[in-house]
User: Fold Cytochrome P450 from Clonostachys chloroleuca.
Amino acid sequence: MNSHGLAAIAMISQLLWVPVAIYLSLFRGHGILLAIGIPLGVQSLLSYTISIRKWHAVNNLISQSKDETHLPPQYPSLVPYVGSALSFVWDNAGFLRQATRYGGRLISSRISFLGFEIFAFQDRQTVAKVWKQTSLSSPISIFVYAMKYFFEIPENVLSVYRADTSGPFPKPHRDTNIPPQARVDHITHYGFLQALSGPGWLPTTKRCMNALVSRLEEKGLSEEWTEFEDMSEFFKEWVGASLIESLFGPSMLRINPTFVKNIWVFDEGIPWLARGVPSFLRPSIYKARRAAIAQIRNWYLYAREHFDESYVSPDGDGDPFWGSWLMRYRQKNLLPAEKHNDEVLSKLDLGLAWGVVGNTTPTSTLFAFHIFKDLTLLSRVRDEIETSFGNQDLLDINPSELIKQPLLSSAYAEILRLFIDVFFMVTSAHKDVPLGSYHLPKGRIALINSGISHKDDSFWNTRNGEHPVTSFWAERFLIDPSDPMSGPVAPGVYKPPSREESDRGDGGKAPYFSLKGTEGSWFPYGGGHSICPGRVLAKSAVLFVSVLLARDYDIEPLVERIETTNWRCGLGAEQIKHAIPFRIRKRRR
Ligand code: HEM
Assistant:
């Protein structure tokens, strides 16, 4: 039977309610459940069958259509109103994976959820278009969610963020009339962009490199092996503290020696907070959060007392009390924003501190583990470092050169592909947004998950199955001009333009790092205007950690492999399941 026939039967099934109404009026109270349940059940089954038919029909047609007025196909669900809510809450990653795959390829779909509709965009053409749309460029909705559930920002402040539809750009959206002190989206993101991917990136990266070198020196490692119980803990304390120091400055950690520890207790609690677990069930998370917030406020008082402009370093960015331009900017511009005060800003700064360390630290652990576990890879990494930097003092390495190293860049991109699992939520406040095959109507919410796209075996190059998408292959993102089987994208899915090779000025012979063609499939940092502003700092920090370790130290991980869990599903780096014992010594030269 075709779907018209089924639709007709569904309409006729509505008539079942006529005998039910007669029955109920004649025999009040008798068999009421059966009388309502049977027609409801019949109707649900029929509409489920129809929606399955439509699902197949639309998915088969959609791949040939270029009409942007389409909505993605509706994912079938058996129970009206509740929709897919139960499956989604039970295992959101597993459910989304199923709802966004058809005929072996990633697709987009609409999911009904307690009377609402959520759009799930996973096909790479739509995802790539999402990142290009300026009207989807404000991360404010996810920002408000995190502020509420993770950082306990009071409702009256959240309402300022919700009301701010003026956008993140210097010029407010033309349909809005938000006063300058309430343009919190712009105030916040302007600061991030200037400090992390604009003029502040280099000074911040340099401070981070300095902190990494001196904090590792302080551990007093020698040419004899020293054994540690857990690489994750070692990196949390070392890399985490160095990253915090690069932005919050040395005074912050000196007057609050337990701040980094509190951040990590809080970080471990984030998946609980995301699930709404109350304080009496997990008091340690709430205690660590309170302590960290109090420490930040304590630091405000100290910095206000000691800072004056003459302490700002010649690069115009760092200073010993506020630590960086970004922190001074936030004191000057975010503190006076509507409904903001020290309490609110300290919670927002806790969010920033968590953003700085939360993904970068586990990424650096995973990166170091994979390099040191594979001795062939380690030796190639050491060659790359030797060729590019020779005996240069580590602190003289130019970060802009560091982040161009092909093998290190490829291995880094591969670690992010394999281990960064983030949910992105996008919405357009002012108008419908065309996205190629589909459009996103104004005010509707769409989800995109990086983990699903990062492991799409119809897209990634596995070298004929030799390197499955679930495994680490350091060279996946390297294109070797003499090897047509190389490169991140499966042969046949994307062919790099020949211009890409000649652009590099090395005669086009050496293997080079490339992300071309992966725009809608590799997005560990998000995309478009709301892309993670700390991504270049993160890459330089992680690469510098590996250069420092590979050049000056030997490390032996004492476990064979790392297992991760999806307990943190959608929050960034996957959780490492177990301790990673290892030993370390200075290299003999
Ligand atoms: C491997 C490391 C990192 C990963 C995978 C990562 C990933 C992300 C992602 C997925 C977002 C959300 C983007 C969106 O909403 O569309 C984000 C936001 C953000 N990240 Fe990162 N990040 C990393 C490192 C860093 C570092 C080192 C900083 C440093 C300061 C940082 C600062 C931020 C900030 C401030 C935001 C919020 C931006 C906003 O609201 O516009 N991140 N990051």
